[in-house]
Amino acid sequence: MQEPAPAARIFISYTHDSDEHAAKVRRLADTLRAFGLLAVLDQYESPGPSVGWPFWMERELQAANYVVCVCSATYRRRIDGLEAPEKGKGVAWEGNLIRNLLYDAKSDLRKFVPVLFDAEPDDSVPLMMKQFHRHTLPVGFPDLYRHLTGQTSPPPPVNPEIRVIQPKPAPTLDPAWNLAARIEGGAPGTTNTASPAPTKPTVTREQAKAKLLDLLVSLMSADELRRFVAYGPNGERLSRSLPGSSVSLHALATELIALLERDGQLGPELFERLRQDRPYRVKDIDPVARVWSELSP
């Protein structure tokens, strides 16, 4: 079993949208502390830090191992600089600090973790965090905790065996290039060189897509599938085209297959990426890959 990482310092960035929203943020911070993490929250600093809020925010952002950004429509406006100047000065200040850290070449982008409460839409994630993996609470709290404690699920395999595959066949030549026959006699080119008729695929394209759908649903969760898309070819554009977090894993995978088909990405490269991402599931991936290789281009 994987050992958890040492306790991390977690800074929670949010906007005071409502009393209920602030109470949920407080519950998140309290729970992280109850599970061994040092959550840092402005609500713990009543009536306020002695050094003042700007310096406190700057110090805590830099000291934090992770910054959990509780995204809402108000939070996005203030972080993206779209709010009226007289509103949300504290979060606007945080936004400037976060932006500077993101632009710092030495900053680890994994430090910033967007979260959404309940049915909050993906549109509430600030523009500069759109490509980051996000968690929806409360259902996604276990994945968030794994993220903040460096625990992966499932862990990668250890020392997988090298797979032996068939060697690449030698290229064929026109019978006229039978040089030995020109000395030993015979009539080069008299053999029947007609190419065999192409083999008809054993499944239709729709059946092949159904097999791919079953494979994707068995390989990944919805969050893992979105992350797989984001880090692949045209990941940012494809991620924007996917439905929101409220859809089921089956519906998400169905829409992804349709997008990949329109993009011309349903081919060997997709299955090679799946093998690299899930090497311990190659025995499940290869049969579906063979079905696709039999289909006509």
From TrEMBL:
Keywords: Glycoprotein, Membrane, Receptor, Signal, Transmembrane, Transmembrane helix. It is a single-pass type I membrane protein. PROSITE patterns: SEFIR. InterPro entries: IL-17_rcpt-like, SEFIR_dom. It holds the Pfam family SEFIR. Its main location: membrane. It is found in: Membrane. It comes from the Bacteria. Residues 7-146 form the SEFIR domain. This is TIR domain-containing protein. It comes from Nannocystis pusilla.
